[in-house]
Amino acid sequence: MTPTRTHFSPLARLLHWMMAPLIVAMLFVGVAMVATVSRAHNTLIAIHKPLGIALLLLVVLRVGVRITRGSPPLPDDMATPQRIAAKASHLVLYALMVAMPLIGWAMLSAAGYPITLYGPLHLPPIVPHNVELFALLRALHTWFALVLFATVLLHLAAALFHGLIRRDGVFSSMGRGGR
Questions:
Q1: How close are the terminal C-alpha atoms of the chain, in Å?
Q2: What's the DSSP call for residue 172?
Q3: What are the phi and psi torsion angles at 168 (to 5°)?
Q4: Among candidates 122, 130, 63, which has minimal Cα distance to 95?
Q5: Tens-digit pLDDT profile for residues 68-109
Q6: Which among 53, 34, 39 is positioned nearest to 115, based on CA atoms?
Q7: Residue 69 and residue 110: Cα distance in Å, rounded?
Q8: Partners of 115 in the beta sheet?
Q9: What is the pLDDT, as a whole number, of residue 128?
Q10: Residue 169's Cα: distance from chain center in Å?
Q11: Rounded to 5 degrees, what are φ and ψ at 130?
């Protein structure tokens, strides 16, 4: 009989802890970007674009790891509504982590802006130049960023609930060690 896994795979944990601070940084850089018109604006954009694409690549890898290596089971004594909320919130997180950079890329494409990653390295546009589409995508990018921020806060609150109150191993499953 195979013992029950108590931890995510080492690669899943590495990707989680690499991406978590990058996503939080992206949210704050995004807020700072739209809140400033100073010279820092261009610097923030120069950080935001390649970091968004890097996060897109990391989340694609992370989804593959999650599909192939799975995740430890939730505690048996967890109520059904909590199980549903846990699974739904993870689906929302993954969907937003994929959608946000794609919407940003499409938004810049619709505006006719180059998507510069570094120096001469540019991404091709993924939608045609269209001012109305740009406006729609910009609003969508903003709203999804707010939803992502709220979902990250809920994720953090749930992690702390499991780690400090329930002490059921869910919090430590993304920590060091284990199988």
A1: 15
A2: G
A3: -105, 10
A4: 63
A5: 999 999 999 999 999 999 999 999 999 999 999 999 999 999
A6: 53
A7: 37
A8: 123
A9: 97
A10: 23
A11: -160, 115
Which tokens hold the place of 38?
Answer: 């100073």
The residue count for the chain: 179
Residue type, 53: I
At 111-167, the pLDDT tens digits run 999 888 888 999 999 999 999 999 999 999 999 999 999 999 999 999 999 999 999
State yes or no: pLDDT of 3 exceeds 80. no
Cβ atoms 65, 15 nearer than 8 A: yes
| Cα–Cα distance, 74 to 154 (Å, whole number) | 17
Q: List all residues 6 or more positions away from 50 whose beta carbon is below 8 Å from its beta carbon.
A: 116, 117, 118
Residue with tokens 């940084």: 25
Residue listed under structure tokens 């940003």: 104
Tokens of 99: 């959608």
Give the pair of three-digit tokens for residue 19.
Answer: 């991406």
**Residues pairing with 118 in the sheet:** 121
Closest by CA position to 92, among listed 162, 172, 155, 23:
155
CA distances from 156 to 64, 66, 80 (A): 23, 19, 20
Tokens found for residue 60? 């694609």
